[in-house]
Design a protein that fits this description.
Layout lengths: L1 E5 L12 E5 L9 E10 L4 H4 L17 E10 L10 E7 L3 E5 L4 E2 L16 H14 L6 E4 L5 H12 L3 E6 L2 H9 L5 E4 L6 H8 L4 E6 L3 H9 L1 E9 L19 H6 L2 E4 L9 H13 L7 E5 L4 H7 L8 E5 L3
Parallel strand pairs: 8-9, 8-11, 9-10, 11-12, 12-13, 14-15
Antiparallel strand pairs: 1-2, 3-4, 3-6, 3-15, 4-5, 5-7
Helix pairs in contact: 2-3, 2-8
This protein binds NADPH dihydro-nicotinamide-adenine-dinucleotide phosphate (NDP).
Length: 332
């Protein structure tokens, strides 16, 4: 099978030298193992943290070790486990065409009428992040103004829609006019700021959120976050989910620059980690599936075809090439 390995730890922005594709021979699955033919691989921003040696919330990948992440596939050899050939499963797998997985780490998926790739997106980890981050951390109330960064992305798109369902006015930041159109028209945000064609985020937000900001779901950090802090209202809540604008930084710029605003407003700034909600993942996915089926939640996926394009799909996250969840289609 073709498989990707971490060739070297990137300094700053990862590039082609970070990845090494090799052909590996697979043994037959052993006791308690299954052979999976991978159909979709997930590429996620947090994987940048796994490429670095330092401590992060996910263990670092070893140099020369396979890259891995969430994947969906079909069981082809179940070797006496609880699975049957033909089952569609999700779990942690290597960036490969075929992977031998520990059966205990796999789950059968039933996405109903939805494509199986949704198990990596709106019904999977990003959807659950949005679900718990919005409902348990941000907790928007009717009439609140909520701002979401990376609003066209896998997490942000769902956060904004969940906040709208709670009755909030929702403003997004996204990196192109095309994305802003999707954010407003499909995801139903009240406004969207294309930060790549705007010099003055503070001014743009004054227009888009004239009553100030009661809730901020931060996926990016950096200058967008500085601008949003400038507009926080008294008792605002900030849910810190991601800092993708800083993941490739070789030297951390000074910041956040607007923490004085937290004093002034007595805002609550709270970090969130989706893994903390693991005992409730099924509940989240069931609710999300119901809302998607009912048309209350819209989702998008960007699909790149071919295992050989997995590195580019990952690197594209930092260029904003995806709308909604970025996945790699490895096989039919
Ligand atoms: P997305 O689908 O949102 O993809 C990443 C997006 O980030 C890009 O499409 C791009 O959109 C935007 N982006 C990239 N660089 C910058 C930048 N310099 N400034 C502003 N925006 C940028 O990814 P996910 O939905 O999977 O993840 C979103 C965030 O949530 C990430 O930071 C991720 O690490 C975090 N996360 C945290 C979890 C947790 O448990 N805490 C769990 C899951 C995700 P654009 O074109 O708009 O720039």
């Amino acid at each position: 099978t073709e498989r990707y390995f971490l060739a070297e730890r990137p300094q700053g922005r990862p590039d082609d030298d970070t990845f090494d594709r090799r052909t590996v021979e697979l043994d037959d699955p052993g006791a308690g193992e299954v052979l999976v033919k991978i159909s979709y691989l997930s590429v996620d921003p947090y994987m940048r943290g796994r490429m670095a040696a330092g401590e992060s919330y996910a263990d670092p990948w070893g140099v020369d070790e396979p890259l891995e992440g969430a994947a969906v596939g079909e069981v082809v050899d179940e070797a006496g486990t609880e699975f049957e050939a033909g089952d569609t499963v999700v779990g942690n797998m290597s960036w490969s065409e075929y992977h031998i997985a520990d059966a205990a780490g796999l789950q059968r998926i039933e996405t109903g009428a939805l494509p199986v790739s949704t198990a990596l997106g709106v019904l999977g980890m990003p959807g659950r992040t949005a679900y718990f981050g919005t409902r348990e951390v941000l907790e928007p109330k009717a009439g609140d103004t909520v701002v979401v960064s990376a609003a066209a992305g896998a997490v942000g798109s769902v956060v904004g829609q969940l906040a709208k369902l709670q009755g909030a006015t929702v403003v997004g930041f996204a990196g192109s006019d095309e994305k802003c159109e999707v954010v407003e028209e499909e995801f139903g945000f009240d406004a969207c700021i294309n930060y790549k064609s705007t010099d003055d985020y503070v001014e743009a937000l004054a227009e888009a959120a004239p009553e100030g900001v009661d809730g901020y779901f931060d996926n990016v950090g950096g200058p967008i976050t500085d601008a949003v802090f400038t507009h926080l209202n008294v008792d605002a809540t900030v849910a810190v989910c991601g800092q993708i604008a800083l993941y490739n930084a070789e030297e951390m710029p000074t910041g956040p620059r607007k923490l004085g605003k937290v004093i002034e407003t007595r805002a609550t700034v709270e970090g969130l980690l989706v893994g903390d909600f693991a005992p409730r993942f099924e509940e989240a996915s069931a609710d999300l599936a119901e809302w998607v089926a009912a048309g209350d939640i819209q989702y998008r996926e960007s699909v790149v075809e071919g295992i050989e394009n997995a590195p580019d799909a990952f690197l594209g996250l930092f260029e904003g090439e995806n709308i909604g969840k970025q996945v790699v289609k490895v096989s039919d």
